[in-house]
Amino acid sequence: MAQIQTESFSCSVCLEPLKEPVTVPCGHSYCRMCISRFWDGEKEKDVYSCPQCRETFTARPVLMKSTMLAELVDQLKEMSVKDAAGGPSFDAAEDVACDVCVGRKVKAFKSCLNCVASYCEEHLQPHHQSAALKRHTLVNPSKKLQENICSRHDEVMKMFCRTDQQFICFLCSMEEHKGHHLVSAAAEHTERQRELQESKADIYKNIQDREKELVFTRLFTSSHVSAMATALWKTTLKA
Hints:
The protein is built from 5 helices and 10 strands; from the N terminus they run ββαββαββαβββαβα. It has a 3-stranded antiparallel sheet. It is elongated, with a radius of gyration of 28 Å. It starts with 20 loop residues before the first strand and ends with a helix.
């Protein structure tokens, strides 16, 4: 799944991040104020349409706030504010600090399994310049580097045994895991990341489908109640 961009949560009417987002029956989302003003201009036509796909609705849809979408937009705004602050900030609760920096803590850019240490971009440079350090295994910043070291052989676990479902070192592969289905740790990490992204994509799609179903249900209920009220009014007039 591609990284979600801010543009994905922008209103196609005002081209700004969604404010109090609402979803219309066709599935597109807008700022409540933007779509309301757009439909106000269509009153004389006795038909309402979606500004994006132009699907029409004979009755003006009831607008309900999309809570999930609103939360996502708020999270994106917070991320944008942090990015605008400049440079990688360090949050002791979640981020990994560079083990070399002195004084102000700087967020680590990579962790080295061989050094069992984490480095910011500046202090990582020797790993890109030294022939010996270039052979080290760099991974995304982790607070649990020791978990990547084989407790039996004190070696970096660069392999994964799919037979026993565990990370192992080269010496392990030559001993108790000999003949098992082995892949590189990097390949296993890539596969797990792919599965995770697919799972996230499925969850996100399910959320969108449920929200769309909810919008249709509310629209149908509103239209049904309106039709019953009209029928009752006509019956009263005839009486």
